[in-house]
Amino acid sequence: MKILRPQAFGRIRSAKVAFNQEIVLTRRVAPRLLQNMNLGLFAGIIGAFLTWVVIDSAGQRIRLMSVAGLVMYLILSILVSANPARIKWRPVIGGILLQFCVGLLVLRWPQGNQAFRWLSNQVVTFLDYTAKGTFFTYGFIANPPSEICGFGSVFVYTSLQIIIYFGAIVSVLYYLGVIEAVLSRIAWVMQYTVGTTAAESLNAAACIFLGQTEAAILIEPSLGTMTDSEIHAVMTAGFACIAGSLFSAYISFGACPQYLLSATVMSAAVSLAVSKIIYPEIQESKQKDMKSFKFNSRGHNNVLECISDGAVHSAQFVAAITANLIVYLALLALLNSVLGFFGTLVDYPELTFNKILGYVFFPLAYMMGASDAVDPAVQIDETMKVAELMGMKTALNEFIAYQQLSQWKSDGTLKGTRAQTIATYALCGFSNISMIGSQIGILSTMCPKRKSVFARVAVRALIAGTFSCFMTACVAGILIDEPLSCNSAASNGCVRLERMNFNNTAEFDYEL
């Protein structure tokens, strides 16, 4: 039997220490190498895509301007970031790539475009069943005779009533488990491609169809343990998307259904990317895996209770939207009148609040490639109109901006189809100043102890949501080579009444 000498023990210990150091070094270096490989792969994909864009837009250089606009918004996001040094580029690049993939699928791939148009038409048909209930309830007001010019349907009794119908259907689908099944799978795709946590991905997926309030209800059990960055991502997605119940309302203003549906999907994806630039993650998340996520129970006993609760709950939103529209439109008219008065004092009677917003947002709209007009004067005019709409949407709300877009399309003020398309995408979102209070109020009610966090990240979330909508417009400007023009439901071939009296006589002209 051999007896090891002391020197042998020393060599063994030295070898063991060296082996452990190699293991530690491998554990530190391997993730970095893997991350560098992923970043290199993403960089290669982006380079190949930019090459394709340059070749594909050979005859339409204005589409390259949209690429510059996209880069500009990324730079602006970095400049307003809470912690630029801690930005993790994996979710940023993943979110932008997912946005482009969705855009290519629905805007450039013929089969995908056809399928998305079919889906958009089915959504419109599904929402239009609301007319059966509104006509029975409101009668003439909900369905006025189209033969008389100017007798359009009353907005609050038609388009807004869809919110009640949609809310009841969502409540039933939630009770049956359909919402959980569908959103869980979409969230898994987002989590896998973008690299965000379960709660962030689920909220972004829910915002595509449900809007910020219903989406927040889904993740309510996790609000107490979410990191500040996750809360910021939740609020950003709420600002960047619209609710499915409002599709028909925007369509009634002349927005193309397929553009609206693709815009909210693309904005949901890029909202995660922009959120991680403006408010990077510096904490450890407790909601990393969808398998560990628990959905909140609403406590309904049967389908009939779901329908009733969903309808009554949604009716409150109809009242809130109606009140806000009345107040904002009245204040806008007052402000324009006051500014017009002061404008006459300096020989500029055309001065309005819309004009001021247009000048502020003009550089942003110009960099997005808002107009493809050949005449420089027409290009500047169309870009200014798009900038005004962007400003109205941000300072007031998207309803007023879409209504103004519809009016400009009808009277020929904004004729360019590219300008109309860019505006449709840029306006598609809840990113306006008035929604800050709404978001803070909703989330604070669900989780009062995190109210200070909601208030602290709200402004940056609004900026991130705004940038997300505008970046979606840039991507649409890059990919769409033949923009569509959709019109509002105006009556043609109608009788225009000129004067009526109490003797039941009228003078009228037939208008084609």
Shape by Cα distribution: globular
**Total E-strand runs:** 2
Uncertain runs with pLDDT below 50, 5 residues or more?
508-512
Please give the domain count.
1
Radius of gyration from CA coordinates: 27 Å
GO cellular component, one term: plasma membrane
Domain Concentrative nucleoside transporter N-terminal: 68-139
Membrane topology: Multi-pass membrane protein
Subcellular location: Cell membrane
Description:
The structure is a single chain. With 512 residues, the chain is mostly helical. It has one domain (70-285, 299-485). It contains 19 helices and two strands. The chain has helices at 6-56, 62-79, 89-108, 110-128, 130-138, 161-176, 178-194, 198-209, 212-218, 228-240, 247-252, 257-278, 303-345, 353-367, 376-395, 398-411, 417-427, 434-446, 451-479; strands spanning 494-500, 506-511. Residues 508-512 have low confidence and may be disordered. Residues 159-254 form the Nucleoside transporter/FeoB GTPase Gate domain.
Quick overview:
With 512 residues, the chain is mainly α. It is built from 19 helices and two strands. It has helices spanning 6-56, 62-79, 89-108, 110-128, 130-138, 161-176, 178-194, 198-209, 212-218, 228-240, 247-252, 257-278, 303-345, 353-367, 376-395, 398-411, 417-427, 434-446, 451-479; strands at residues 494-500, 506-511.
Which features characterize this protein?
two-stranded antiparallel ribbon, Gate_dom, nucleoside:sodium symporter activity, transmembrane, CNT_N_dom, mainly alpha, 512 residues, disordered C terminus, 19 helices, globular
List the helices and strands and how they pair.
Blueprint: H1 6-56, H2 62-79, H3 89-108, H4 110-128, H5 130-138, H6 161-176, H7 178-194, H8 198-209, H9 212-218, H10 228-240, H11 247-252, H12 257-278, H13 303-345, H14 353-367, H15 376-395, H16 398-411, H17 417-427, H18 434-446, H19 451-479, E1 494-500, E2 506-511
Antiparallel strand pairs: 1-2
